[in-house]
Predict the 3D structure of the following.
Amino acid sequence: MDVSAILTAVNNFVWGPVMLVLLVGTGIFLTIRLRFLPWRNLGYAVRMVFSRRDNHAGDISPFQSLMTALSATIGTGNIVGVATAMVLGGPGALVWMWISAAFGLSTKYGESVLAVKYRETNSVGEMAGGPMYAMKNGIHNGFGRFLAFLFSVFVVLASFGIGNMTQANSIAAALHSSYAVPTWLVGGIITLLAISVLIRGIRRIGLVSSIVVPAMAAFYFIASVFVIIVNFAAVPAGIMEMLRMAFSLDSVAGGVGGSIVASILTSMRWGVARGVFSNEAGLGSAPIAAAAARTDHASRQGYVNMTGTFFDTMIICMLTGLVIASSGMLGTVDPATGKLVSGVQLTILAFSTVFGDYGKLIISVAISLFAFSTILGWEYYGEKALEYLIKKRPAIMAYRIVFSLVTFIGATTTLEVVWNFSDTMNGLMIIPNLICLLWLNKDIAKECFDYEENVVAHEKLGEQIDYQTEPIEVPAEAYERSMR
């Protein structure tokens, strides 16, 4: 069996039904365990995103932390992944994407709470946190350190593929196919932009993300809403078709894609898979950014980062799905190949029903912004995972430079095996992270209920509460010794 076949087999398991059931099941368990507080406090969480609490321990503001996490989360999956899910799983896949995100709120909340609760201050005064530190400091035995090691290795390897080369290639491919821009030119520009930001570390990443992410989200939101409004006559039928196919044992799409056949299991599989791939709830990546936030309570930042799943899947992915459903383009067959149009081409067709040739420009700009922001966010994830494995600062600086240069390779080369390998690493992050979440569910619940009783109840009445949670202080020598 060749390497490609082995990776395909592993990927089928990692992103297959068993793992997806475990992911959603963990979300359901945590939602019930936390007495549905992540759902009940969603409005409160959104308000916390914009509150300023900059006098506490941390490297960046809560807003910048969320934007850094969203920069890595909002990517090509919001454009390409939704279209692919609706073709392979039918329009009902969007409903299951939304359902998985609803339970993913609790998962994202839980992993972010643990990241802040068990974060440390490293030898240069920066926050070091994420699932690997929760595993090391929370599980308190050799098994926890083993999980932390595995998770960190998976993150570093995934960062170069899913978080770097595939994103750079998406930008280069979109601009080359739409406007014949040479891939080497695109790769050179991405590399220069990346290195100018990444070499300065998390504070520069947080600053740039706090500008780029809201701007790109607003741009895509306005363009999508405009298409939906123009095609609004088809929206009610599109929504009804989504709901019908999401819960139908075996059905053929009607007005929004007559040539698509999908069962409830197919819709569920593709909806959940693309939803998780898009919002990353359960992967353990976003909590690494959460750990850098200046916050007075682990639960507060848990709520803030939880909104990332809401904005990513429940808003942006839903908009893409409604644009496609209302456009009448779902189910279009490419006359050249005889196959259903899918991926980015389907999204371009949907936007073109209103914007004409400018639809191609809108999607090209959106993909470029989404993918570049993903590169920035994933560099920080990989850097912090590498820092857990190797404490030497020169190694961290070298990683930043190498990571930036690899974007050029991704933009100019098709490396199918490398991409499949990184996709596998990305999925394997789920296993140690879910074990950690379930193992430490009592810690999550304790933080949640304590915060609800001592902070949320008062703040909902207009009282300002500061509840300082200090990171674990570790002297430089002990910090390096503890990781050997």
User: Anything to note?
Assistant: Residues 120 and 471 are 5 Å apart (CA to CA).
